[in-house]
Every structure is written in C-alpha cells, then in structure tokens.
C-alpha cells in the first residue's frame, strides 16, 4: 500500500503525464508538463526509485555542485501536485497531479502499476497522457492534435477517437492500456511534429497540446511566453526552409495537401475554440455550461476521498496488443 504523507485531500483530481523518449518528438509533451509545473508552481511529493526502472548507461545520472558540495541527480519520474483556484475565490478549486519523467528502460508493467497506485491513492478521476510523434505535417500550419482513448464509453461521451493502432509502442501506449485494464478513464493527446524539423525544442507543438488539454478539462492554462516562443520557432524554421529550395518545395507540397484535406468549416471551428480558450484564461475556469470538460461538477468544491485498493484487488494486467499512437 502506498502512503502519501503531507499531500492534502484533492478536489476533482486529474493526472497529467508525459515522458521523455520515444513518444516525445521534439520534447513537445514533456515540455508541456514542465510548463504546467513552472506556471502553477507545482510541489513535488513523490519520485519513483530510479534503480527499479532505469538503465544508467542509457540514461546517465548528472553530477553538479551545490555550494561546493558535489551532488548526483538520478534519472527518474517525479509526481507533483498543483492546486488551481480556491474554495472561496472567483476561480473554483480543481487539482492536477503532474507526472513527468523518462521512459523507463525496464519493468514497464511494474512502472505502470506504481503510477496507478498513486492515482488510486489520490482519488484521480482521469489520466491524461501527452505524447508527440513525427508526421507529414507542415510547420506553417496549426499543429494537429489527436485525442484517443481505449475506453469505448469515454470515446462516445467525449467525442474522442477510439484507438485502432497496432504495432510497436512506447510507455505512453502501455500506460494508456494499463489504465483501461484497471478501469481508470484515460485519454492520450498526440501532437504531430514535422519530421523534417524533429530536433527539440518545439514550443509550437507544446502549445498545441496545452490548448487541447484546456479543451478537454475546461480549465484556463496560463501560457506565459510560450505563444511568443512558438512564433519565434516558426520564423526560425521559415528562414531555414527558405535557404534550401528542395525543403521549401517539400513544405509547399505539405501545405497544399493539408489545405485540401481541411474541411470548409474547420477555420470557423478553430476560431470558436480559440475564443473559448480566451474566456477560460481570462476567468481561470470553464465558462458556465461548457460541455467540453470531463469533470462533471467542476464548481462544486467537492473533495474526493483518496481511494485505497481493497484487499485482493488487482492492479493493471498485461496490456493488450493495441496501442494508441496514430
């Protein structure tokens, strides 16, 4: 049993996770969670034992000086909590559990069991995993973000795409399936990063993931300098593409294909969604009656008791063959 000391009872908690590695093209997903940690001043309350999950020849520890004292930082996965709003303030309380780390080198099922153990203990209602993959998408257009789930009921309720992917997977796909087997609602948000500019960082893709997270949860996320960083990134890639005629021609072909595939009403939908995000960021929460939020009663201020697994209750079983990476 996991005992969490010093962690307060959480209100309508949702877990948001991202992992560096194979499912993090351009570091877009892990950077998005790191942004949430900075903007909301997240407090770390737990870290997984690095010895259990990481090969230190693959993910090496770092030595650094702390006032003349040599210290070691081990690669691991850390959990933190952010408390949004207040019970009596204009912005109603809602809590997030943030999970950020590195894709483990080994013992993936135990890794997912431990993450879900924290989720059960804290009473987490839903797990949202962020991922990024390489795709045939132009950097000059909005970053496509696909929201998928392995939960048929959740797909219908939130109008999400039900995963049909078959093939090699990473920890994002395994955690998604582990949640499904454990009966925990889970959604994965996938951002498509242009394959011809795959090196990190990619603030435009991180921004797109945060926009999708806003839409899913119905919360206003402070964006800080991220929009300006995204604009600067696009200008920089524009300049690099202009210096190579072949790349410029390729980008043009991707633009034409993307524009042809877009539905006529897509631009109107994008404008409407952006206006809804503006209202959320201005007010710090979802507009009254916003149907996009998963949480059923975000303004109730209701505290959900932590859930401890009963005796004999099983954690997630071995994931099935289908994963959600398309």
UniProtKB/TrEMBL annotation:
InterPro entries: Proteasome_assmbl_chaperone_2, PSMG2_sf, Rv2714-like. Gene3D superfamilies: PAC-like subunit. It comes from the Bacteria. Residues 278-326 are annotated as: Disordered. Pfam families: PAC2. Residues 312-326 have a biased composition (Low complexity). This is PAC2 family protein.
